[in-house]
C-alpha cells in the first residue's frame, strides 16, 4: 500500500535530505521519521512551543525498513551522521541494540516519561543484548502504537449473515480460499496461538497441542501471502478477509466503505513506533550541552503531552500510548474508535511480540517452514513493514 505524501508549507518545519552531504554545523534538531506517523500540525505546534528559535528538520521515509538501512549506513566511519532521532518499530529494537545502531536515552531529562504506561516502558527497557530487563537501559521512547486486526469485505460477508469477531472465524468454511495473510511467521503463528488461548510469545511450541494441525488448516484457507500487498486482493475481490496492521487498514477503510475491520475479542498482537537515538548522534559528538540536546528531550516530551497525543491519535492511523490504559481523560473524539483504542478487556489479553530465545526462534522457523504454503506469496516482500521477523 502506497503511503500518502507528507506536505509541509515553507512557513512551518522545513524538510531536508538526511543522507550524504557534509557534517552538520548547526545546533538544530534533525529527525528522520516514518511517513504519516506525525501530522504536519504537530510539527508546526512544536516549533511554536520552543522557548527559543531553533533550526528544525523533519524528514519522512515511507518504510521502517528503509530507516533501519539508514541506521546501518550511518554506522560506518565514512558516513556523516545528520540525525538526532529516528523512528524505529519495536520489532527492530533488539537487532538495533545488538548491532550498536542506537544508544540509550536519558529519560531522567524527559519530564513526560511517567505518562507512558508501564507495558510500553517495559517494552523499551532492555539490556545491552536487547533482552527485556527491569534493570536495563531505556532504548526508545514510544510515541504511537497499533495492533493486528482482521479486515473483511462487508458486502461479501453480510449476505451470509456474519462478520468476523475473533481469530477462530478465519477457519470458517465460508472463507476457504478467500483469505490473505502477512508473509510473517511471528504474526501468523501468533494468531494461531491466540486462537488456542496461548501467548504469542510461547517459549516452547512443542508444548502447544494441535498447533501444527491448526496452522496447516489455516494455510488451506489462505489464497495469498504478502507483507506489503495483503490488502490488495481484498480490494479486487480475490479474497474476502485479510489479517494486517491497523496502520494499513484504517486508511483503506476511510476510502472504501466496503471494508470493515475488527480487533479479535481474544486479544491480538501489538506494535509500537519509537523515537530512538542513532549511535553516532551529532549532538553527542560535539558539546553534550548543545541546544539540540535539549530540543531532543523537548520533542519527545512534546509527543507525550495530552494535546499532541490527541492529534497523533486522531490525525494518524495509530494511537498515543498515554491513552492506552487510562480512559479517564480520553478526549470525546477518541471514544468509540475501537480500531485505534481497543476495549480494555481486549487489551488485557493482547501482547507485544517480544524477543525470543534462539531455541524458541528456531521452533517458530521450523513450524513455518513445515507449511506447504502453496498460496500465492510475494517473493519480494519477505520482510514485513511492521516486523523484522
TrEMBL record:
This is Extracellular solute-binding protein. The keyword Signal applies. Pfam families: SBP_bac_6 (PF13343). Keywords: Periplasm, Signal, Transport. The keyword Acetylation does not apply. GO terms for biological process: polyamine transport. It is found in: Periplasm. Its main location: periplasm. One of its GO terms (molecular function) is polyamine binding. InterPro entries: Sperm_putr-bd. GO terms for cellular component: periplasmic space.
Amino acid at each position: 500500500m502506497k503511503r500518502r505524501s507528507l506536505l509541509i508549507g515553507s512557513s512551518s518545519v522545513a524538510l531536508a535530505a538526511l543522507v550524504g552531504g557534509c557534517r552538520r554545523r548547526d545546533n538544530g534538531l534533525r529527525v528522520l521519521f516514518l511517513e504519516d506517523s506525525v501530522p504536519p500540525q504537530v510539527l508546526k505546534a512544536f516549533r511554536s512551543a520552543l522557548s527559543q528559535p531553533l533550526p528544525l528538520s523533519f524528514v519522512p521515509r515511507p518504510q521502517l525498513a528503509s530507516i533501519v538501512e539508514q541506521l546501518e549506513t550511518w554506522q560506518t566511519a565514512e558516513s556523516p551522521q545528520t540525525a538526532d532521532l529516528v523512528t524505529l518499530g519495536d520489532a527492530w529494537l533488539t537487532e538495533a541494540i545488538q548491532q550498536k545502531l542506537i544508544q540509550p536515552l536519558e529519560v531522567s531529562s524527559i519530564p513526560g516519561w511517567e505518562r507512558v504506561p508501564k507495558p510500553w516502558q517495559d517494552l523499551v527497557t532492555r539490556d545491552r543484548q536487547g533482552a527485556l530487563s527491569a534493570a536495563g537501559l531505556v532504548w526508545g521512547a514510544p510515541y504511537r502504537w497499533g495492533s493486528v486486526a482482521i479486515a473483511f469485505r462487508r458486502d461479501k460477508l453480510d449476505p451470509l449473515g456474519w462478520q468476523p469477531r475473533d481469530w477462530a472465524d478465519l477457519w470458517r468454511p465460508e472463507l476457504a480460499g478467500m483469505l490473505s495473510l502477512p508473509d510473517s511467521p511471528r504474526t501468523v503463528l501468533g494468531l494461531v496461538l491466540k486462537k488456542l488461548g496461548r501467548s504469542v510469545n510461547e517459549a516452547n511450541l512443542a508444548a502447544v497441542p494441535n498447533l501444527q494441525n491448526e496452522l496447516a488448516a489455516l494455510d488451506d484457507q489462505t489464497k495469498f501471502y504478502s507483507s506489503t500487498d495483503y490488502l490488495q486482493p481484498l480490494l479486487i475481490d480475490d479474497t474476502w478477509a485479510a489479517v494486517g496492521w491497523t496502520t494499513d487498514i484504517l486508511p483503506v477503510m476511510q476510502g472504501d466503505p466496503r471494508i470493515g475491520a475488527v480487533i479479535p475479542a481474544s486479544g491480538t498482537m501489538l506494535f509500537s513506533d519509537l523515537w530512538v537515538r542513532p549511535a553516532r548522534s551529532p549532538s553527542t559528538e560535539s558539546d553534550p550541552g548543545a541546544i539540540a540536546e535539549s530540543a531532543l528531550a523537548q520533542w519527545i516530551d512534546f509527543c507525550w503531552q495530552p494535546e499532541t497525543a490527541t492529534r497523533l491519535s486522531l490525525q494518524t492511523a495509530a494511537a498515543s500510548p498515554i491513552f492506552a490504559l487510562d480512559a479517564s481523560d480520553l478526549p470525546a473524539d477518541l471514544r468509540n474508535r475501537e480500531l485505534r483504542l481497543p476495549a480494555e478487556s481486549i487489551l488485557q489479553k493482547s501482547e507485544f511480540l517480544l524477543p525470543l530465545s534462539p531455541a524458541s526462534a528456531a521452533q517458530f522457523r521450523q513450524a513455518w517452514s513445515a507449511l506447504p504454503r502453496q498460496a500465492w506469496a510475494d517473493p519480494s516482500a519477505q520482510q514485513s513493514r511492521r516486523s523484522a521477523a
